[in-house]
Design brief:
The protein has 12 helices and 10 strands. By secondary structure, the chain is an alpha/beta fold. Bound molecules: zinc ion. Keywords: Metal-binding, Signal, Transport.
Length: 338
């Protein structure tokens, strides 16, 4: 577990300098926010009432709730169905951060927009990198060589991951267990009065994660190898594929452009036909248009919606991390069982 400052952990020097420049120039970080930052206390206050935690996106928010229970108050910056790759923080986010004692982030270059927000908010608490200790994977080389990762929401040039590291480590439940342990340890360290409760809830939660991990492995192992191939919108399932023996072909995320070129789409369609890929899936954080086109042109079955980078809205089956995995598993099995 490490608690290094966010900017140290997250940004190489060049980008830190750029972010500082942007901070000076940005309207978001102008007058009112600077004034707010100056009012922030010099150190995070001792816990009075629930520990105030900010999570960068919905999946981490759920993990903090599962482990924190009634001892924490969790604010999530990028909520259900939100795209945490491309997020524009609001002044309200800065106020939430300023009031928090802990901020939980994914790391691995996922939240490129967050260091600037952390600095602007005057946040003085602890940054917890949930992915600390997982083995990072690179986006695989494909026909186009190393590639960037983009949800295609526009704003060319704004979104770029550091290097070629795949940030979607939560899509392997074994990594999810690591996230839970990191979060549990951080909560216990920040709020010693409830440390035992955090530990107990962490253990119980990790046991559920590990049980589901075993079940997902079993389910995929039972599929014939030629059925273990699907198309998704963006390349969010690399860790999932490595862990559970699936091959994912991503329709987007094959170039750094917002939209794949006609040649890219033609290449994917050719690959799907040649390899007889059985199903094409949508994702809750991506436009369904491209997946629909690919399904139309290849005759591949249209699977359901997968939850990749964000949970579903409260009340839906995929509204929690484990619920998301259960849901995705059921969608895969419905489309891929022979
Ligand atoms: Zn993603």
């Amino acid at each position: 577990m490490a608690y290094a400052s966010f900017s140290q952990r997250f940004l190489p020097l060049r980008r830190r300098a750029l972010a500082a420049l942007a901070l000076a120039a940005s309207g978001l970080l102008g007058g009112s926010m600077a004034a707010y930052a100056q009012q922030a206390p010099d150190a995070a206050p001792a816990p009075a009432g629930p520990l105030k935690v900010v999570a960068s996106f919905s999946i981490l928010g759920d993990m903090v709730k599962q482990i924190g229970g009634g001892d924490v108050q969790v604010d999530v910056l990028v909520g259900p169905d939100g795209d945490a790759h491309e997020y524009e923080p609001t002044p309200a986010d800065a106020r939430r951060l300023a009031a928090a004692q802990l901020v939980v982030v994914n790391g691995l270059g996922f939240e490129a927009w967050l260091p600037k927000l952390v600095r602007a908010s005057g946040f003085k608490g602890t940054t917890v990198v949930a992915s600390e200790g997982v083995t990072p994977r690179d986006f695989g080389g494909d026909a186009t060589g190393g590639h960037g990762h983009d949800h295609g929401a526009g704003k060319p040039g704004e979104h770029a991951h550091d290097g070629n590291t795949d940030p979607h480590a939560w899509q392997n439940l074994a990594n999810g267990a690591r996230y839970a342990r990191n979060i549990g340890a951080a909560l216990a360290a920040a709020d010693a009065a409830h440390a035992d409760a955090y530990r107990q809830r962490t253990d119980a939660y990790v046991a559920r994660i590990e049980a589901l991990d075993a079940r997902v492995k079993q389910a995929f192992a039972a599929l014939p190898p030629e059925r273990r191939r699907v198309v998704t919108s963006h390349d969010a399932f690399g860790y999932f594929g490595d862990a559970y023996g699936m091959t994912f072909i991503s329709a987007m995320g094959i170039s750094t452009e917002a939209e794949p070129s006609a040649a890219d789409v033609a290449r994917i369609i050719g690959q799907i036909r040649q390899e007889k890929v059985p199903a094409v899936f949508f994702e809750n954080v991506s436009s369904p248009r491209l997946a629909q086109q690919i399904a139309r042109e290849t005759g591949a079955r249209v699977g359901g919606t997968l939850y990749s980078d964000a949970l579903a809205k409260p009340g839906l089956p995929a509204a929690t991390y484990l619920g998301m995995f259960e849901w995705n598993l059921s969608q895969f099995m419905a489309a891929l069982k022979p």
